[in-house]
Amino acid sequence: MISSSGSPGAAMKIRIRGYSSNGSSDPLYIVDGLRMTDISGLDPNNIASMEVLKDAASAAIYGAEGGNGVVLISTKTGTQGTAKVTYDFQYSIQSATHLPKLMNAEQYIGYQTEAGNMPAGVTSDYDTNWLKELFETSPMQKHNLSISGANEKSTYYASLGYLSHDGIIKGDNDKYERFSAMFNGSYKVNNWLKVGSNLTLGHAVRNYVYENDIERSVVGSALVLDPLTPVEYTGSVPGVIHELLAQGRNLVQSKDGNYYGMSNYVTGSVNPFLQRDVRQSKSTRDELMGNIYADIDILEGLTFTSKLGFNYSNLNGSVYTPGYYYNANFYNDYPGINETVATTHYWQWENYTSYVKTFNEDHNFNFMFETAVSEYRYKYVDASGSPLTKDQYSYAELDYIQSQERSTVGGYSYLDRKLSYFGRVSYDYKGKYLAQVSLRRDAAGLSILPGPERWGTFPAASVGWVLTNEDFFPEIFLSHVKIRASWGQNGSVSNLKNYQYASNIVDSATYPLADGTYVTGSKPEQLGNFNLKWETSEQLDLGLDVRAFRDRLTFTMDYFNKKTKDLIKDNTPPLESGNAASPINGGNVRNRGFEFELGWRDHIGDLNYSIKGNIATLRNKVTYLNPTISRLNGVGLMQWTATAFEKDMPIWYFRGYKTDGINAATGDVIFVDVNGDGEINEDDMTYIGSGIPDMTYGATINLEYKGFDFTLFATGSKGNDVLMGLFRTDRPMVNRFATYYTDRWTPSNTSASLPKADVDPRYWTSDAVVYSGSFLKVKQIQLGYSVPRNLLRKISFSNARVYVSLDDFFTITNYPGIDPEASSSDDNALGVDRGFYPLSKKVLFGLSVTF
């Protein structure tokens, strides 16, 4: 699980066994059988269980969409007995975690003076710590009320949920509010028919600030703006303010009526408070999803299930930009509004038959056959305009645009259909020997793949041997030993849409005729590729499961080797073609590693305890790239392309100059001449790091003593790097970490670890800005108390628990930035820090009662 942002309402990312594509590596989410790509609107209180399908054989049932793994989520249902009403409440106090130490005013002046960027003798009345000014303590609260029950014929579960999350950046521009409702029910009509439904309704409103953007990130601006600039002018204002006002410039004021501070030195970055206020972004999502199903028992052991699932989503977005002026690079003369509407309609219909039969008491078979069809429709409309009738938020509507001169309208629609057939046979003999084979055929819609290649075939097989069920196995401390192996293929077309393989004819430039008239010519929009086919992930998994000492000890080991071939990527057209090229199947990626999990549970008198730990290793490598392409360029940092996709390298590795220390005589950086030509230029850029960890790990400790319970959960990674992407070569006067001043080379400090202030600009595109991203984070420390049942019965309660928790409170890392765990939502920028919204630490109080 990867935290792409700590912003309220931001979605989490899950990566299963590495990064398998130059495009999306997102897994498939299955919620009560419904396929989904995003689960951020799902209330965790309604989740009963979550299972991750890692190997290809277990994910084979989802063939066309299981190439990046599958996450199965089951929501709660009613249980047999009297009706239960449960109320869960949480209230947390959030604050910023580790704030890096940046240069103060004295250090900044000294550093920039030595660098020749500032004349000698500069002084300042200000010493602004932008990070401390930017963040505040903020609240978050959750409520969930549910009622559930079941009898011999029916089950039901209904819940209402509410979440209010205020972000840690000062002001009201980073808030998230979610309302949710759920109803799950089933009814046994007779002894052969059972019907049911799972329905979820959600409404969410998110206000957010820009992040992970080298130009517009609010946190990024706080990291690089000089300390000589105040947040706002509270007394007299400098002459430049009077001059700009005299010119009619629209200067932004704080809520107290003061003008925001303007930097005289860092012209490319902006006061983060002004950055926060001049883009007021809001999104509203309404969603209805669920399924209805029927189970029919035809004969003994023979069952037919039909399930119809659906998901309707409507996402409205708006960005209001008032009129303002900050400097010559950052201004907006006309207040404007941009509105977007994205509508999604999805349905799936699955029908499957299963037959379970035992022969001669020892041979157990399970046959299953399934057909499935689905349709996904997406429509996006974008409209913007300026100026507005009045420059205030209440007029930020398209209705209030004064003129259509600056108005734009755009959009597109997208349709995808899939058809699938799936068959599986499972067998076991006396619980000793296990085997399973499956085959899936998937057809993509013509909007995705051309007709000749639209079908994909994905086989899978697995075997297992339970040694402890053998007669010869001795009765010792081992209670269960199982050896297993699996192999399978899964497909993906998640990187394709809207006939990208096709060569559509579009209008081109006008052409003059001999008579002086002009005609509009037409040309192919791009070169077509009717040989485009599925991305395919092929995976081998070898595993061992052990339980010992009356199941108190558990151990699991897996080795996996996952090869993803025929990666879908953009092609490079011939120079003489004059147009773009369609995507091609042009690359292969390999992920392999080991996974270990060890657990122990026992009790000492009234103390029950359990300890569990896990470690996973990963080796990622691009094993093939189409010969016409030397590398794919990834994320750009203005004058530097920082990541690349290249053969024999990890996917989207960091690419820049290598350094070999500091010249003690001059304080200059020693760059490595990689190609040995005697010059240092772009040809010497090479591998300088990777955002992919070599190892991830976690540990959980649970204790229970009488009514008290305690949980400690920690997680971490090792071997991954973080590239600080805010230190640009074209902005020499940005602020930096304080160590660049305290540890810099000077004539009196020739053994320094960092170069002199007047450093070669290429230094900021080298391994010098790549830091270790390894970390150990204590995600949760929780202490709870359950009130004794005999006391609760007197007030008609069946359960009551109170607890307090410290979440994300402690982090051990050498990364000098804010948060080593935050990562880009784009895989081609994995590990590149462009001003992420950091994860907050929380003091949480909770209550759960059932009656």
How would you sum up this structure, described in words?
- This protein is mainly beta and 851 residues long.
- The longest helix is centred in the first third of the chain and has 10 residues, at 105-114.
- The mean pLDDT is 92.
- The two termini are 35 Å apart.
- The chain has 7 helices and 44 strands.
- Helices cover 5% and strands 50% of the residues.
So what's the overall shape? globular
Q: Roughly how many Å is the radius of gyration?
A: 30 Å
Q: Give the fraction of residues assigned to helices.
A: under 10%
Mean pLDDT: 92
What oligomeric arrangement do these chains adopt? single chain
Approximately what portion of the residues adopt beta-strand conformation?
A: over 45%
Question: Stretches where pLDDT falls below 50 for ≥5 residues?
Answer: none
The strand count comes to: 44
First CA to last CA: what distance? 35 Å
Q: Enumerate how many helices there are, as a single number.
A: 7
Main beta-sheet strand count, sense and barrel state: 22 strands, antiparallel, barrel
Structural class by helix and strand composition: mainly beta
